[in-house]
Amino acid sequence: MAVRPGPAEGRDPVPEPYRLDPAGGCPHAAGARLLARGAVAPVELPGGIEGMAVLGHDALRDFLAHPDVAKDPRHFTALAEGRIPEGWPLRTFATVPGMITADGADHRRLRALVGSAFTARRVEALRPRVEAVAAELLDGLAGAAARDGGVADLRRHYALPLPLRVICELFGVDPAHQEPLHRLSSLVVATDTPPERAVAANRDLLALLAAIAAAKASAPGDDLTSALLAAHDEDGDRLTRPELIGTLLLMIVAGHETTLNLVTNAVRALCAHRDQLALVTGGRATWADAVEETLRWDSPVAYFPFRYPTRDLAVGGTVIPRGTPVLAGYAAAGRDGAAHGPDADRFDLTRTGGPRHLSLGHGPHYCLGAPLARMEAAVALEALFTRFPELDVAVPEPRLARHAGFVGNSVRALPVRLATA
Description:
The chain is an alpha+beta fold. It is built from 18 helices and 13 strands. It starts with a strand and ends with a strand. Mean pLDDT is 92; it is low at 1-12.
């Protein structure tokens, strides 16, 4: 990596910002190189916007919970100065109203309106439905493989529709809306979407969510969208319309995209490490263990936008200037040898003694849907490998096309062979 000279003689050289590839790619090699230089790295975001990525586990844990770190976009200097165009691919992450861009009491208010639906007890009550959907989808996966020489795309036929159907059922979304919701959300979260298409995708996604909310307002049901429309806090304040749409966007998009990547990555990892799969099928480890190690070893999110220091802040030995957009480098933190040991890049379900991974966040913005994601992934893996114990990835790992963009971390398709030929 090239370096820039410091502003005065004798000062340490300043690393050139690492240019994040908008088209994405595997984050692990670059993450390791950056992490070898320090826990925090300067990065260049699309459009030449300067940012930072916090990559070290300990530094990231502290940063995520720091009281002088905000999510509110008014703290984003480049946005406040008008340097972020309408079609900037990461603009939605920075500006969508709702709990993802709220701080303090406002964040707690918004989170409380949704949080009761994602308690461990409520999530466990969903398990029979998740199991039923998984069984139905496995029938479809088997049918797809039978039509194509024993090979089928597990991501398309199983890892995607399982969490998408579950989250849409929770929010009372008509099944006809599921495909456009995923298509539009994929464009919104990708970092290589052209500006004109990004603007159109955001407009169409918000219009679709508004239509879903309007339908529920006129005909409420036993679902979370109807509950949000009726909910109010202790002062009698209801969600504003922008907050409602922003909450639906966050919960429906994050509620399936992350779990989709998690299941896909777990299947790839278990197929590539048959000894670890044997630990689970032999009763020496659990499917929950497989989920947690996948979250650490191959996080479904590589770099999550954004947080902003509200003052110049020293993090991991590096000063991050006030107003800098900061990415949470979950993929790199999961393989940080300083935290997870010298074998941090090894997939090992028996790993003990290290810190808990950060892939579902930390601090006040810890992932609200974490219990649901964990349960869905464990159910999906158990059902899949119980029905198809010889399942294996049908093409070599290097030939799997990577996810579009540097936020999500997975592959675009996962061809699998359900049985040994």
